[in-house]
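Structure (tokenized):
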């Protein structure tokens, strides 16, 4: 799921990617909110909240929320640079390396929260989580040609509504039905996994605290490491 890119991908590969990484995104987003009171992946909500606070004269809070947006954009920017660099150098498994980078950052952030006090680590933690979510969303968007967006729930919900509408009698040509159903399944799986990840993230944070981020990093490593083994041991395509 982290080897084939663009048109070489099948619906089944995209589905695996969406389920696995949406689960991670939902867990990070919900655990971050439970810990610090802000969402690391919900840029729509953060921008809306920033405009609200700005209109009320709460400039510091508004700037903080916009800072999370900037961190998310920088994460996507870094992911794009990393992937472009890897592709120019013909580095096989560059997308898997991107996910391993995400895992390493989550381990660092989880360790930071364990060692430092909340007063010191809180803001840096949220900036880091937003950066990580931007990194992940950009990688999944690039590898799937935009079909998989693991943190973009508003867009996914819209696509689900459009998918159901397209399946209504008389809504479209019969030869489009199979494609529409496959895309609808992908979007439903993405939304369901994000929701399940949110439940798991809060449940985990309540029980093991910041260690939940290190556990999530372990899931990312478990997803990326076998992909790299396929590439370098068996010569699988990029």
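Design, position by position:
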């Amino acid at each position: 799921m982290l080897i084939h890119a663009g048109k070489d991908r099948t619906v089944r590969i995209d589905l695996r990617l969406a389920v696995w990484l949406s689960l991670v995104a939902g867990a990070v987003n919900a655990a971050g909110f439970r810990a610090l009171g802000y969402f690391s992946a919900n840029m729509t909500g953060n921008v809306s909240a920033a405009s609200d606070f700005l209109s009320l004269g709460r400039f510091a809070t508004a700037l903080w929320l916009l800072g999370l947006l900037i961190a998310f954009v920088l994460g996507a920017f870094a992911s794009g640079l990393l992937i472009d660099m890897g592709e120019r150098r013909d580095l096989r498994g560059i997308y898997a390396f991107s996910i391993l980078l995400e895992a390493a950052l989550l381990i660092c952030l989880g360790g930071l929260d364990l060692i430092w006090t909340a007063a010191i680590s809180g803001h840096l933690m949220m900036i880091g989580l937003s950066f990580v979510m931007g990194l992940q969303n950009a990688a999944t968007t690039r590898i799937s040609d935009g079909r998989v967006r693991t943190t973009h729930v508003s867009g996914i919900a819209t696509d689900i509504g459009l998918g159901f509408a397209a399946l209504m009698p008389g809504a479209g040509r019969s030869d489009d039905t199979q494609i529409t159903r496959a895309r609808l399944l992908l979007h439903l799986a993405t939304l369901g996994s994000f929701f399940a990840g949110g439940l798991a993230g809060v449940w985990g944070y309540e029980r093991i605290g910041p260690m939940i981020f290190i556990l999530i990093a372990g899931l990312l490593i478990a997803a990326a490491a076998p992909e790299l083994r396929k590439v370098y041991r068996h010569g699988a395509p990029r």
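Reviewer-requested clarification: The radius of gyration is 19 Å. Residues 50 and 62 are 4 Å apart (CA to CA).
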